[in-house]
Write a structure and sequence with these properties.
- The complex is a heterotrimer of chains A (409), B (186) and C (257).
- Chain B has 186 residues and is of the alpha+beta class.
- In chain B, 30% of the residues lie in helices and 22% in strands.
- Chain B contains three helices and nine strands.
- Chain B has a three-stranded antiparallel β-sheet, with no helix packed on it.
- In chain B, β8 and β9 form a beta hairpin.
- The termini of chain B are far apart.
- With 257 residues, chain C is mainly alpha-helical.
- Chain C has a two-stranded antiparallel sheet with strand order 1-2. In chain C, strands 3-4 form a two-stranded antiparallel ribbon.
- Chains in contact: A-B, A-C, B-C.
- At the A-C interface, α4, α5, α10, α13 and α15 of A face α1 and α8 of C.
């Protein structure tokens, strides 16, 4: 009898289950009464949105995989069969393809929210790092998924990105051959990408679980960046945040629906409607929009290995960000200089995105280099120094105190 | 109950009803939404347009000698087309319908004017094996039609079950004669 | 409060501008295409069936001599208003390889379930017959070209004499909208290239417009269903958003913020 849980649920069936496997108690603790800061703004919706998006991707992906053929001779035709013949196949595919873009939009906003409000700082360092792992997994999944339709962009994107590894000294070429399973991107490559594209989302589910466990240990950050002091500062997650997240989900679904039903090709590239041709490279190879800033950083360095290192470095700095930012104050609300730098960083990322979409010539080369330089300067130099020199604004006593006078106005 | 408490209740009752109603609308809206999302996912598992488009097939049957049959494919299933001899037709027509396991007249299972042709789906109605009997050398069972090797069900030359575990006659697929020797199944 | 609003606005605008900035990329070095008025554009758009049928006539009499449309099916012509009998007749005009009852290769007439007949048995044969150039498959052509139907229209009406100083390659033609301006395909359409069954006057512009409409249909046969379903879903979501927001307001009404 030692292990049995003492359940407080009245319903006998629920009580019986809960005594043996306290799922209901856990759900109630983590999503029912879980004390959540009362001052979230709508930017705190994006974690829940990412969760919904992940579920949408997995569900549509499973059904698509039932009709997809990962063979270079059939892949393109099988995708077109999904579009023309499978009942609602066009809907499933457009939801899945645009869902990838929606996922990155949601996750990038989620990340920048974390940057703005200092959500990566002690004690949430590990929570943040797990998040960066999720981002990396998403990138790998997104990249491999884009290869599957076996259009021109699929093929040449796969070729260019896998060739990045050839920059590694000595063993580079062997690694690329290993990745391809041959001497060019071909059937073995497509097969393994399909296998991994199906596997990784479930790995993401696992890491997301860790992300949420870590979040529920430390509790959520909030727009003020100060810890809740007592009951006055928090609200039970349900119904306050379940309903607020629901509002966000509705709006998100509307944006998603506009994309899927009225502009399904908005984020796509026309070249991918032509079957892969290993002998002809399209006039302009552009990665999916969510990789563009990284692609720009890659090209900003006139050295193959240097470019690759910088590109991976751009994500690596995020891993160590909790220790690069030395300021004891979390929220940019109370950090006037950091707030300014944050917006400069945002502009830089957008400019890098535009640079990644253009041929590297003229003004784009200069813009790419300047913004790449700022990106690293921001994280590696400015943030460590800022903690020492920035004069921060006085923090409020508590969340309630900061909130009440504002309401009185 | 004191007067103030009553007042309090009276003042808030409509407010609460309104709130509950809104919640109900939102919850049912969400439920409808989730249900509607499920439909495309489920329907995608149904036969697709290219499969449905191939649901009819035409066959030339003039070269089949009397007493023999061929197996053709319709929707991935074997269909027996058998050229019956005059004797077989007579036997089939002479059977007392009331005695049958799954009563049906021979006329109801062939096309008028084409009585020599029997067209049935060649799948035993017991557990889905393919009966023998199209070739003259096959075992045809005691009734001269078809014999299922799996559990010994026997069918007559009209494809009607006469013996064994099978509960129903071999089904007749939808078909039509385009000419005297050409049929379209489906 | 103001800062918050500003940030939200900024994020929304950013998200909207982002792809616009990026798509500008592929447009560079390209001549801007004149925009046409298409029946199928916009949220309520649907295919002009008469125009698409005329376009199909052009495809059948002109394009299909060189271009394949091998991912499309004859049965899909139902979407531009052809009857079942008409589709059967169209399909039966072509023969497809099969195995005869004697086991030897034979030919059978096409059926609505067949993919469109390809003019050449393979790409190599297509190149050999076309001066080394491969006529692209037309099934997804409007999706596969920047500008879509506008590009098809521009290309078909964009043939002109090469400007002085431009030396055309052997067997090449000058087209002001083709990337690089030298195109292997000779001007396929001209005034009265076909005689329309419905009596419409077959000007070059009319022909180009019709065939572009037909090709747009072949690329996106789901378009009408998609937009109709989309409108219904958006209306539903809009209502749900309002209700959910009202519930949120009520639940939060007792919280000071």
């Amino acid at each position: 009898m030692v292990g049995l849980h003492k359940s407080e649920f009245k319903n006998p069936v629920i009580n019986w289950i809960d005594t043996r496997l306290p799922l209901f108690t856990m759900m109630s603790k983590e999503y029912g009464v879980f004390p959540t800061p009362k001052n979230f703004n709508y930017f705190w919706n994006f974690g829940a949105l990412a969760m919904v998006n992940l579920v949408i991707m997995i569900v549509t992906g499973i059904v698509l995989a039932m009709n997809y053929d990962p063979n270079t001779g059939n892949a393109f035709e099988s995708v077109e069969r999904i579009m023309r013949d499978v009942n609602y196949g066009w809907l499933l595919r457009y939801v899945h393809a645009n869902g990838a873009s929606m996922f990155f939009i949601v996750v990038y906003i989620h990340i920048f929210r974390g940057l703005y409000y200092g959500s990566y700082k002690k004690p949430r360092e590990l929570l943040w790092m797990i998040g960066v792992v999720i981002l990396l997994l998403m990138m790998a999944t997104g990249f491999m998924g884009y290869v599957l339709p076996w259009g021109q962009m699929s093929y040449w994107g796969a070729t260019v990105i896998t060739n990045l590894f050839s920059a590694i000294p000595v063993v580079g070429d062997s690694i690329v051959t290993l990745l391809w399973g041959g001497f060019s991107v071909d059937n073995p490559t497509l097969n393994r990408f399909f296998s991994l594209h199906y596997l990784l989302p479930f790995v993401i589910v696992g890491v997301v679980f860790l992300h949420i466990v870590a979040l529920h240990i430390t509790g959520s950050n909030n727009p003020l960046g100060i810890e809740p002091k007592d009951k006055q500062d928090t609200l039970p997650f349900h119904p306050y945040y379940t309903i607020k997240d629901s509002v966000g989900i509705c709006v998100y679904l509307m944006v998603f629906a506009v994309l899927v039903f009225f502009a399904p090709g908005f984020f796509g590239d026309p070249a991918n409607w032509t079957p892969a041709n290993p002998l002809v490279t399209p006039a302009a190879i552009v990665p999916e929009w969510y990789f563009l800033p990284f692609y720009a950083i890659l090209r900003a360095v006139p050295d193959k290995l240097g470019g690759v290192l910088m590109m991976f470095g751009a994500i690596a700095v995020l891993f160590v960000l909790p220790w690069l930012d030395t300021s004891p104050v979390r929220s940019a609300k109370f950090r006037p200089i950091y707030r300014l730098l944050f917006w400069v960083l945002i502009v830089c990322c957008f400019v890098l995105g535009a640079v990644g979409a253009h041929h590297p010539e003229g003004i784009w080369v200069i813009l790419g280099r300047v913004c790449t330089a700022y990106y690293f300067l921001h994280f590696l130099v400015l943030l460590p120094l800022l903690g020492k020199f920035e004069k921060t604004l006085p923090l409020p006593e508590s969340i309630s105190q900061a909130v009440l006078p504002a309401a009185a106005e | 109950m004191s007067a103030t408490a009553q007042e309090h209740n009276a003042g808030h009752a409509p407010e609460h009803t309104k709130r509950d109603f809104l919640k109900l609308v939102a919850a049912s809206g969400a439920a409808i939404g989730v249900g509607a999302i499920a439909w495309p996912l489920i329907d995608s598992l149904n036969p697709s347009s290219d499969v449905l488009a191939l649901s009819s097939a035409e066959y030339e049957i003039g070269s089949i000698p009397a007493g023999q049959g061929i197996t053709v494919v319709w929707r991935g299933k074997p269909v027996f087309v058998r050229h019956r001899t005059p004797d077989e037709i007579k036997t089939a027509e002479g059977v007392k319908v009331a005695d049958l396991i799954d009563p049906a007249t021979d006329e109801s299972r062939v096309k008028a004017g084409h009585e020599q042709w029997l067209v049935v789906v060649g799948i035993c109605t017991h557990l889905g094996c393919i009966p023998l009997g199209n070739k003259t050398t096959d075992a045809r069972g005691d009734f001269g039609g078809y014999f299922c090797p799996c559990h010994g069900s026997q069918y007559d030359v009209s494809g009607r079950v006469r013996h064994g575990p099978a509960p129903l006659n071999l089904p007749v697929p939808p078909y039509a004669f385009l000419t005297d020797t050409r049929i379209k199944i489906g | 409060m103001n800062i918050k609003r500003f940030a939200i606005l900024g994020a929304v605008f950013g998200a909207l501008l982002l792809p616009a900035t990026f798509s500008a990329a592929s447009a560079e070095e390209e001549i801007s295409l004149p925009k046409q008025d298409w029946s199928f554009s916009g949220p309520f758009g649907s295919y002009d069936k008469a125009s698409a049928q005329r376009g199909f006539q052009i495809y059948k009499e002109v394009c299909s001599a060189c271009h394949s449309m091998k991912l499309g099916y004859y049965r899909e012509l139902a979407g531009i208003g052809l009857s079942e009998a008409q589709i059967k007749a169209v399909a039966a005009e072509q023969t497809f390889p099969t195995i005869g009852d004697d086991g030897q290769p034979a030919e059978r007439p096409g059926t609505p379930a067949d993919h469109f007949h390809s003019p050449f048995p393979n790409d190599k044969a297509a190149r050999a017959a076309n001066n080394g150039a491969l006529p692209p498959d037309q099934t997804l052509l409007t999706n596969a070209r920047e500008g879509g139907a506008d590009y098809i229209y521009a290309l078909l009406t964009g043939y002109e004499d090469a400007p002085a100083g431009v030396k055309l390659g052997d067997g090449m033609n000058y087209n002001k909208y083709f990337p690089g301006h030298q195109i292997g395909m000779a001007a396929p359409l001209s005034d009265d290239r076909v005689e329309y069954a419905d009596g419409t006057k077959a000007t070059l512009k009319q022909e180009a417009h019709d065939v572009a409409t037909f090709l747009a249909y072949m690329s996106n046969p789901e378009l009408e269903t998609r937009k109709r379903l989309g409108l219904r879903i958006l209306m539903f979501l809009a209502a749900l958003t309002c209700v959910t927001y009202a519930v949120k307001r009520q639940i939060w009404s007792d919280v000071h913020h």
